[in-house]
Amino acid sequence: MASVTRKPQANREERRGQIERQLLDATDRLMADGTSFTELSVDRLSTEAGISRASFYIYFEDKGHLLRRLATQVFADLSGAAAQWWEVADRTDPSDVYAAMAGIIASYRSHQPVLIALNEMSGYDPLVGETYRELLVGIAAQLTRVIEAGQAAGAIRAQLSAQTTASTLTWMVERTCHQNLPSQPGSYDAELARTLTDIIWGALYLQAPEL
């Protein structure tokens, strides 16, 4: 009798990740015309993503659960953009900070509808709000390590509280993008990236930027 082998858990997680990415792209497309997340039905989201309604409910309890998972995907993209600076911060090159800010802004533009939905639902869905805050706290924690390493190397101001400064800068970038980008054209993005770079560099580093 042939043995029955269960699919490894890794396969299920890989499939979940694939479906989450399909649903993230579908949500971005469907909300691009101004439709709110609350107006999107599970049927419409599933059809746009190319999956069945049954598949949706295999992986997600409801739309709130989906939004929390989409938040994880979006913030992975934002963290990936920020890593353009974090991973080479020991070079103390302001162009790395600029590349990170430009990447964050581009990711925000790409996922703007989902990020707007996260902000809206955070106000009345405690689980969404908690997820949103935890993701930003996670980004601030990574920036804290960058600041501490810079302080140890003598490049970043020693008097700064690394944790408080990282949290402040993280929320500054998040709020700035959320408040300004929806009402500004794409031509504004380079100016914003440069402004954020100047502010962050001036707050952290002992040497003046030369871009």
Automatic annotation (TrEMBL):
Stretches assigned to the HTH tetR-type domain: 17-78
Sorted UniProt keywords: DNA-binding, Transcription, Transcription regulation
Alphabetical list of Gene3D superfamilies matching this protein: Homeodomain-like, Tetracycline Repressor, domain 2
Top-level division of the source organism's lineage: Bacteria
Keyword Transcription: yes
PROSITE patterns cross-referenced by the UniProt entry: HTH_TETR_1 (PS01081), HTH_TETR_2 (PS50977)
Gene Ontology molecular-function annotations: DNA-binding transcription factor activity; transcription cis-regulatory region binding
SUPFAM superfamilies: Homeodomain-like, Tetracyclin repressor-like, C-terminal domain
DNA-binding region: 41-60
Keyword Transcription: yes
Name recorded for this polypeptide: TetR family transcriptional regulator
